Amino acid sequence: MNLMPSKENMGPYFKRLLKVIECLYPTPPPKEKYLYLLCFLYEETQMTEREVAYIYGSYVGKDYLDLIGDVSEARTEFVPNLEKYGLLKQQLVDCGYGDWALDPTTYDPTLND
User: What is the pLDDT of residues 3-60, one digit of tens each?
Assistant: First the structure.
């Protein structure tokens, strides 16, 4: 049983973050790259493992339960290269993450177009 809302029914908080992720990766990246993203989302946004799995699952079209193990791996076993992690953070900022992080409830990604 899926306890998270569908992509169509997700709230503005997640929809806006999803736009930032879609800007960063127009197509889903390989696991090596998305572990960095999962690690970043967990560490920097104060989202739970389930929320990180939900937002990434919405992006790739999978149920969050299929990705919860990857989030756990990114959180506990994955040791990111600091240079690559910093580059990811800058790329996310370039895609509007900074504006979203300042006020995720009112950030409008269409203003960046």
Answer: 555 556 667 778 889 999 999 999 999 988 999 999 999 998 888 999 999 999 999 9
Q: Hey, where are the domains in the chain?
A: 30-104
Q: Decide: pTM greater than 0.85.
A: no
Q: Is-contact 6 93, C-beta < 8 A?
A: no
Q: Which long-range contacts (CB under 8 A, 24 or more apart) does 42-51 make?
A: 42/71, 42/74, 42/75, 43/75, 44/89, 44/101, 45/17, 45/101, 49/75, 50/4, 51/14
